[in-house]
User: Which sequence fits this backbone?
């Protein structure tokens, strides 16, 4: 199994989170801590780049769901970018495109924050 990695960065007033590998019950707590640290630091404009995410389980999806309400209540949002077709199908199957904005390019997701 591919090792899970998280990197973070910034683009203007937007926090970038890069996921790589498998996001499942074993690795979800690491992703959860990353989001907790961002939200705790009042960094609530978040783009999650999934270009290197090869698998996501319900535990991984649960992390997104666990934070979206808190982030939005603070005036921010979580946008998704560069999902692989396989990962997008999982998000789509569970209705995530209704709850989250999904972008083909990270730059488009970042730019969307500037328009709001």
Assistant:
């Amino acid at each position: 199994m591919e090792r899970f990695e998280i990197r973070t960065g910034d683009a203007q007033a937007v926090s970038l989170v890069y996921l790589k590998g498998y996001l499942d019950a074993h690795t979800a707590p690491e992703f959860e801590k990353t989001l907790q640290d961002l939200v705790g630091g009042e960094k609530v404009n978040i783009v999650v780049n999934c270009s290197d995410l090869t698998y996501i389980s319900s535990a991984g999806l649960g992390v997104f769901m666990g934070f979206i309400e808190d982030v939005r209540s603070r005036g921010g949002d979580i946008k998704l970018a560069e999902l692989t077709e396989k990962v997008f199908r999982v998000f789509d199957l569970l209705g995530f495109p209704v709850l989250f904005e999904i972008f083909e390019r990270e730059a488009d997701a970042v730019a969307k924050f500037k328009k709001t």
User: Anything to note?
Assistant: Residues 20 and 52 are 5 Å apart (CA to CA). The beta strands are 5-11, 14-23, 45-56, 77-81, 102-103.
